[in-house]
Hints:
By secondary structure, the chain is an alpha/beta fold.
Amino acid sequence: MPGIVVGIDGSTCSNMAVAEGAVLAGELGEKLYVVFGYEPYRAGGEIQDHRLALEELGLQVGNKAVEEAKEAGADAELMLVDRDSVDALIATADEVDARMIVVGSYGDSPLKGAILGSTPHKLVHLSKRPVLVVHGKEED
């Protein structure tokens, strides 16, 4: 079944993206794939500890996001993807034949996004699927 992929990182704007994605998934009768992407680390020692901490963070924010999406009426599933966020979202969208990708943004300027490489900016330019960017408030 096609679905909607939403990217999360635990931020306020990512939570807003989950809320919007859940509404859309519920209205369209599609599954919501909640994706937490993180850089792959192949080494041991401290880097492996960092990878495990990222996975734990992904589980914490992901399970909360899935719970909120389900409360909003969406059939939601958490996916931890061992890739950077943009690659994780695009790969997952391709894997599940997603209708769209939903992400949150603080509303950085296009120039700042181009220079710093924000996830929404990259997705809009690299994804072959529609990308919905949900604007959120900057956190304190």
